[in-house]
Design brief:
The protein is an alpha+beta fold and 201 residues long. It has helices spanning 7-33, 91-105, 141-145, 149-164, and strands at residues 62-68, 77-84, 111-120, 123-131, 175-180, 183-184, 196-198. The chain is built from four helices and seven strands.
């Protein structure tokens, strides 16, 4: 029995097509199973440059003053006896810290206590109490420090220069109000520390 021409050729073609379909299916499956390629990594960004230091926010030295009477002068003058540098803080905290430093180093005749801050037309006012060292005025160091014209002026000078810090470069209260035994200071015979004492009159 004779074979029909072209039958083998068609079978080869069919098997070739089936094989191509299988290969194509295998390729699609492999493509689907492969993990997606990660996007290329971006180059690391350079760290931002640090801002330049602001000298206005850096702590400034705070001098401690004593009133000294020279042999050839009849008027006391302020003399710097020490310098302290506060930690960075708000102005009110720095002022309170400095009051503590004055007490620790006994720069003034007696102790101080920061009572509060008050806002007025003149600005921010620090209210500071002169703490008596004794119940009797005759034994109190503050009371004794205000006796006599020279001694009273030296005490006034030390209070003004230490608590008002006229040459301090940082932020500071605009003025000072003093209390003594819980009452506002009144004008004395030789000096006047009553009312609001401005830092820059």
């Amino acid at each position: 029995m004779a074979e029909r021409p072209g039958a083998g050729g068609r079978r080869v073609t069919i098997w070739t097509a089936v094989l191509l379909l299988l290969l194509a299916a295998a390729g699609i499956a492999t493509f689907l199973l492969l993990p997606p390629e990660a996007p290329p990594e971006a180059p690391p960004e350079a760290p931002p440059e640090a801002p330049p230091a602001d000298p206005a926010t850096a702590p400034s030295p705070l001098p401690l003053y004593r009133a000294v009477l020279d042999d050839d002068a009849a008027v006391p003058r302020p003399v710097i006896v020490d310098v302290v540098v506060p930690e960075p803080a708000t102005m009110t905290r720095t002022f309170g810290w400095f009051v503590g430093v004055l007490n620790e180093q006994s720069v003034l005749p007696g102790a101080l206590r920061l009572a509060r801050f008050e806002q007025s037309e003149e600005g921010l006012i620090a209210v500071v109490e002169l703490v008596p060292s004794a119940d009797s005025p005759a034994s109190d160091r503050w009371y004794q420090a205000f006796q006599g014209s020279t001694g009273a002026y030296a005490t006034e000078l030390a209070i003004r220069w230490n608590l008002l810090q006229p040459h301090y470069a940082g932020a500071w209260p605009d003025g000072l109000r003093l209390l003594y035994r819980g009452e506002p200071m009144h004008e004395l015979d030789h000096i006047d520390l009553s009312g609001i004492i401005l830092r820059a009159p």
